[in-house]
């Protein structure tokens, strides 16, 4: 505990009193109190004069303050009483004076520590002995638990105070007591320090008794023994002491880890001390990982050497089919670890099967190293003869996986290509690594692959070249590069899309203009589809505007594809505004063309266009109502069209309570008495009122 005291009192005499007490100046203390200084004055952390006297062991001042009526149990900011302060500092005379004045030995501070807890934590043996000697005479319990259910023995074990432990055990402290996480004092001693003397003190108290085994192999709440705790903490001396004392070496904690697994995780190189009773590598935990897996994953070369010499199976597989070599390749960039693992099978029939072992998704160690960016390991595996063109479950080679990670893996990509990786290998989705790079916009990678001889116009299984994929994703820099490398502009994929048509549909305006300026055809000659059709179909207003502004002389706004102009496709895509803009643009250049009613309001279902007109009418917004009205008036739309159930647009508007459309249709002469195939006519108050104008026969 800190000796630093922050003194802040309201009155100067109180400040002077606290200073005098702290310094142990009894005469000055007496004078100040006589002059009116407050005997309960408080420092910044709410220590009273009695706290400070106890802290510094000023027994004479304590006796004077008590005689003047100073309260014994006033807590400071940490809820420490003066007795806590004396206990923590080991001031036994001050402690004795307070106890004789009936200070509460069971008082707890904010962490639930009694004075005995603090004495045990701080190794204050004289205080511990004093309290234990009071067992029969003191009022209240002497040994209680703090907020974590720890006894003073737990605290002494945690802090490594062997003499205090001996005293507490002799005084009757329960060596099997557990705190909230279920740890005994031995668990805490094993985890907190590398002092075998402390462990010896605890074990000695139960040696030769029936409790011995239950103490040394006690399980906490996650089924860890003290040996687990020592191994995990890397406390070699304690591990050795526990093993000598007969600790269970193969006990498994909640996740199946033995002490060996935990020791390996921490990189304890003296693994032989816990492998003596254990066939090294034979013990596995819940995901089927052996200690060798753990050592390989953590990159602990010395541990690997010990385990391999001990007979660990280098071909062992975990739950995911990974061998230790897979984990070493994926987890670190340490070629020494890979070398150690391979050296153990070098010159044997196992060598190739270990080097090119396939996990559950058919990845080799080289796949894992390439994907994780471990250049040194990739080089080591290639030097060792790893298969460079092996394909995993989805058809990816190590080269594919490295390319998917981008420019950061360029050195690995070069190493794989230099080792003979086939640049044209395709995965199960029909893509080469270069296609992946183009799709993801990795310009430097594509440039590197092209320099290695990759054909810039190579197609994937869907007929897409690199420039198709770059245009699709909007990578303008990639498109520029590919144009300089001889990429064909007017090449069509299996959907009859050229790069410029694809870019138009997706609204990649910069790329559309770039390709058209480079000489790309604005029209697919096989079916008449233009970039304007594609942009309208994709609802790309800005792209349409730029195409017409920059290339209006080459792209006709009046051209048709499958019987529709661009505004028809905008309507089919549900874009009333784009359709309106295109139609207005057509009108402004005095081109008369009958608007095709079956496309105006439908949403893409070309074969059932009439039915879609009915459905679309039910969702027309107020803004679109005027457009609908105009289209009916000029004959563009047939108002009385019926769907397959006999419903008209008025039926649809009424069914969805679209009042604007309903009103417009009635004003234009829609028949309110028209019945569908279920003999139902539209019915709302407005519609019913209009029916009186019709005579029924």
In words, what does this structure look like?
By secondary structure, this protein is mostly helical. The chain has a domain at 594-697: Serine Threonine Protein Phosphatase 5, Tetratricopeptide repeat, CATH 1.25.40.20. Helices cover 49% and strands 0% of the residues. The protein is built from 42 helices and no strands. Helix 14 (226-233) packs antiparallel against helix 15, helix 23 (365-372) packs parallel to helix 25 and helix 29 runs parallel beside helix 31 (499-505). The longest helix is centred in the C-terminal third of the chain and has 13 residues, at 576-588. It is extended. The chain starts with 11 loop residues before the first helix and ends in a 7-residue tail after the last helix.
TL;DR?
It contains 42 helices and no strands. Helices cover 49% and strands 0% of the residues.
Q: What can be said about the biggest beta sheet? A: none
**Helix-strand category:** mainly alpha
CATH architectural name of the domain at 594-697: Alpha Horseshoe
Question: Overall 3D geometry?
Answer: extended
The number of helices is 42
Report the mean per-residue pLDDT as an integer: 86
Please name the CATH topology of the domain at 594-697. Answer: Serine Threonine Protein Phosphatase 5, Tetratricopeptide repeat
Percent of sequence in beta strands: under 5%
Low-confidence stretches: 6-10, 276-282, 590-611
């Amino acid at each position: 505990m800190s000796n630093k005291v922050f003194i802040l009192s309201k009155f100067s005499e109180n400040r002077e009193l606290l200073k005098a007490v702290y310094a142990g100046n009894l005469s000055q203390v007496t004078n100040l109190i006589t002059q009116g200084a407050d005997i309960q004055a408080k420092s910044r952390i709410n220590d009273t004069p009695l706290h400070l006297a106890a802290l510094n062991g000023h027994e004479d001042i304590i006796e004077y303050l008590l005689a003047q009526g100073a309260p014994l149990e006033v807590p400071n900011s940490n809820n420490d009483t003066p007795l806590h302060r004396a206990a923590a500092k080991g001031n036994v005379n001050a402690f004795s004076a307070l106890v004789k004045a009936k200070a509460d030995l069971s008082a707890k501070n904010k962490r639930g520590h009694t004075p005995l807890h603090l004495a045990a934590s701080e190794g204050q043996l004289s205080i511990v002995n004093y309290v234990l000697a009071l067992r029969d005479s003191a009022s209240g319990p002497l040994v209680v638990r703090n907020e974590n259910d720890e006894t003073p023995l737990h605290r002494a074990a945690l802090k490594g105070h062997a003499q205090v432990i001996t005293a507490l055990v002799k005084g009757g402290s329960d060596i099997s007591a557990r705190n909230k996480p279920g740890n005994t004092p031995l668990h805490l001693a094993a985890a907190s320090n590398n002092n075998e003397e402390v462990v010896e003190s605890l074990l000695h108290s139960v040696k030769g008794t029936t409790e011995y085994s239950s103490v040394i192999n006690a399980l906490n709440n996650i089924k860890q023994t003290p040996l687990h705790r020592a191994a995990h903490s890397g406390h070699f001396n304690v591990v050795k002491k526990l093993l000598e004392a007969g600790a269970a070496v193969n006990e498994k904690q909640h996740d199946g880890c033995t002490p060996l697994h935990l020791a390996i995780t921490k990189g304890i190189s003296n693994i032989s001390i816990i492998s003596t009773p254990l066939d090294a590598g034979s013990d596995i935990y819940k995901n089927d990982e052996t200690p060798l897996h753990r050592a390989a994953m953590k990159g602990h070369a010395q541990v690997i050497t010990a385990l391999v010499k001990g007979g660990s199976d280098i071909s062992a597989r975990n739950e995911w089919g990974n061998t230790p070599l897979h984990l070493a390749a994926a987890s670190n960039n340490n070629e020494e670890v890979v070398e150690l693992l391979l050296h153990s099978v070098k010159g044997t029939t196992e060598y190739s099967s270990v080097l090119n072992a396939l996990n559950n998704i058919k990845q080799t160690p080289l796949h894992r190293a390439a994907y994780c960016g471990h250049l040194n390991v990739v080089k080591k595996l290639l030097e060792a003869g790893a298969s460079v063109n092996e394909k995993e479950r989805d058809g990816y080679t190590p080269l594919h996986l490295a390319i998917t990670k981008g420019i950061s893996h360029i050195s690995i990509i070069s190493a794989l290509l230099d080792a003979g990786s086939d640049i044209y290998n395709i995965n199960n989705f029909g893509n080469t690594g270069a296609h992946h790079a183009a799709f993801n916009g990795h310009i430097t990678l594509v440039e590197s692959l092209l320099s290695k001889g990759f054909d810039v116009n190579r197609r994937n299984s869907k007929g897409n070249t690199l420039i198709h994929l770059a245009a699709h994703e909007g990578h303008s820099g990639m498109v520029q590069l590919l144009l300089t490398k001889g990429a064909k502009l007017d090449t069509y994929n299996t959907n009859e899309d050229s790069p410029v048509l694809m870019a138009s549909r997706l609204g990649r305006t910069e790329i559309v203009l770039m390709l058209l300026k480079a000489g790309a055809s604005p029209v697919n000659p096989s079916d008449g589809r233009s970039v304007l059709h594609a942009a309208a179909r994709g609802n790309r207003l800005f792209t349409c505007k730029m195409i017409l502004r920059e290339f209006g002389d080459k792209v006709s706004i009046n051209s048709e594809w499958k019987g529709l102009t661009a505004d028809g496709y905008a309507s089919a895509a549900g874009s009333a505004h784009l359709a309106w803009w295109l139609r207005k643009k057509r009108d402004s250049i005095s081109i008369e063309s009958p608007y095709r009613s079956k496309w105006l309001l439908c949403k893409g279902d070309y074969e059932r266009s009439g039915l879609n007109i009915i459905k679309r009418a039910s969702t027309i917004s107020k803004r679109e109502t005027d457009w609908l009205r105009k289209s009916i008036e000029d004959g563009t739309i047939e108002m009385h069209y019926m769907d397959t159930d006999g419903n008209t647009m008025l039926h649809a508007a009424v069914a969805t309570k679209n009042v604007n459309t309903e009103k417009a249709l009635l004003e234009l002469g829609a028949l309110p008495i028209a019945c569908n195939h279920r003999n139902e006519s539209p019915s709302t108050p407005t519609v019913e009122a209009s029916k009186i104008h019709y005579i029924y026969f």
